Amino acid sequence: MIKVSVIGATGYAGAELLRLLHGHPEVEVVHITSESSAGKPISELYPHLKGIYDQELISMRAEGNMEMIGRDSDFVFIGLPHGHAMEVGKALENMPVRIIDLGADYRFDDTSIYEEWYKVPHTHKDAPRVYGLAELYRDQVKDAKIIGNAGCYTTASILALAPLAKHRLIDVNTIVIDAKSGVSGAGRGAKTANHFPELYDSFKAYGVATHRHTPEIEQALSDLSGDDIVLNFTPHLVPMSRGILSTCYAKLKDGISAELVDAAFANMYGKEYFVRLLGRNGYPATKNVRGSNFCEIGWHVDPRTHRVIVLSAIDNLVKGAAGQAIQNMNIAAGLDERTGLDIVPMYP
Q: Is it true that the peptide bond before 348 is cis, omega within 30 degrees of 0?
């Protein structure tokens, strides 16, 4: 059995990890932590886990606990806000345990970009890390000490645009991404903007030209295309609990046909289990992937403007967080990627 611990288990991503790990036949959860709720059983905070996970939360900062977690675990999942995973990474760097960070601390090759966008110093610049978007970086993930799990908006957007960038079918200076997320992406903490009367029956943009997932998308697409990409990314908040729909626009290069676009998607994702290609003129929907690790992708070619419009849908808590983390663990552990994740989406 693979022994895992979840540091920061009381956020939505941490609770989703526990839900999915319960169905993983090769995993035993040995420790779960929370600084704000240490001493309480996790099922007291999340009643849906009662009788499934009644483990008591511990503090990772209590004397000896971090060493115990590292000693007892093959993998440690970190579900902490940005700026806090580096403390864990440094504490465990000389132990054989492997780390999967669901936050942003280990996603960037250039830590100065992280510092610019996240406004905190990076204290583990020399950490041996790889970017954890499984469909694009599985060869690097296999042997990684630290895996920086891709973000939710970024997973939907990068997977949508990767075939076009890799096959150099688009003018990368024309990329515009318009994405919408359910409110669970904002976390479990109380915020006025997320209260029911503020959120319900409303739809709004936020973080225009400033959202922190922008440089993460730029990094991956630049890596794929060989170009230094700068793009526009605008997120929106939708009054639903989970799901992301990303609509991505780009100008096709001269001479690029709809058939070449079709071939690029088939070439990159034709054998990918967790990427469902709906084809040209397909319309992904968040409900079709709810509770699952699937990403649905459809694309449209506009002959009038010579633009391609790619649509992608994921569950932000699964493929955008916990499911992708388990997919990365499976790769790193030498297991079939589908282990514990071969789940039919919930419908309706």
A: yes
- CATH code, 8: 3.40.50.720
pLDDT at position 335, please?
98
Can you give the residue range of the structural domain that contains 188?
153-316
Residue tagged active-site, from 134, 152, 169, 329: 152
pLDDT tens-digit series, residues 276-286:
999 999 999 99
134 pLDDT above the threshold of 90: yes
Distance CA 73, CA 343 (A): 25
CA–CA separation, 336 vs 185, rounded Å? 28
Residues 55 and 158 in one domain: no
Note whether 109 and 67 are within 8 A (CB): no
Q: What pLDDT shows up at residue 129?
A: 97
Whether 248 is catalytic: no
Task: Provide the CATH number for the domain around residue 170.
Answer: 3.30.360.10
| Number of domains within the chain | 2
